[in-house]
Amino acid sequence: NAGVTQTPKFQVLKTGQSMTLQCAQDMNHEYMSWYRQDPGMGLRLIHYSVGAGITDQGEVPNGYNVSRSTTEDFPLRLLSAAPSQTSVYFCASSSRAVAGGNEQFFGPGTRLTVL
Amino acid sequence: QQQVKQSPQSLIVQKGGISIINCAYENTAFDYFPWYQQFPGKGPALLIAIRPDVSEKKEGRFTISFNKSAKQFSLHIMDSQPGDSATYFCAASMESGGSYIPTFGRGTSLIVHP
Description:
Distance between the termini of chain B: 38 Å
Helix content of chain B: under 10%
Largest interface: A-B, 29 and 28 residues
Number of strands of chain A: 11
Structural class of chain B: mainly beta
Radius of gyration of chain A: 14 Å
Largest sheet of chain A: 7 strands, mixed
Strand content of chain B: over 45%
Structural class of chain A: mainly beta
Oligomer: heterodimer
Radius of gyration of chain B: 14 Å
Shape of chain B: globular
Order of helices and strands of chain B: EEEEEEEEEEEEE
Low-confidence stretches of chain A: none
C-alpha cells in the first residue's frame, strides 16, 4: 500500500492564481481531512470528509474548497491564492473508529509558497 | 480560543535524559488523546494514545500520564536518544460521525544532544 499520497511536493504561486492540491489514499478509509501547518501554530483543520459526497468545514476553511467524489481522492482547491496561504499542507485519512479512537494517517505534505 | 495548549514550544535534552511535554485541554467532551511525532520533511505519525479511563499508558520509552480532574496530560520520553529529535504534537478529540478528528496543540520541537 502506498498509504496517503500528495502531489505536488512543492509549489510556488503568484497572488490570485488558482491551483489544486491532490490527495489520494489506498487504504479504503472513509474519513479524509486537510490540515495546514504554520510555524508555532500547529496543525489546523481546513476541511474534512466523512465519506464520498460529504464534506464539512474545519477551523480555517476560508479561501479553500474541497469535494469528495470518490473514497480514494480528496483534492483541495485554492481559487485565488493569497500570501497568507503560504504554508505546508497535509492530507490525512482514517478508518471508522474502533475501541474508542482511531489513527490519522498523514501524507508527506505539500509546501506551498504564494508570492 | 485555543482548545489544546501545549508546552514548552521547544526543548533541548541531553542523551539519556527525560523529555517531558505537557498539554492541557478545555473541552471535557474530549475522550481520546493521541500524540503524534513528526520528523523534518515528513508528515506526522501516531506515536501513542490514551483514553481518560486510565491514568497512564506506556509503550517502550514513551509514557503518557493523564490527569482527568486537571484536564492535563503529558508525554514522557525516558532515556532520550538523538533519534527522538522531532516535533511532537499532542491532540484531543471526541467521536463525531464515526471518527475522531483531532484538535492539535501547537507542537514542541525536541532536540536531543548526543
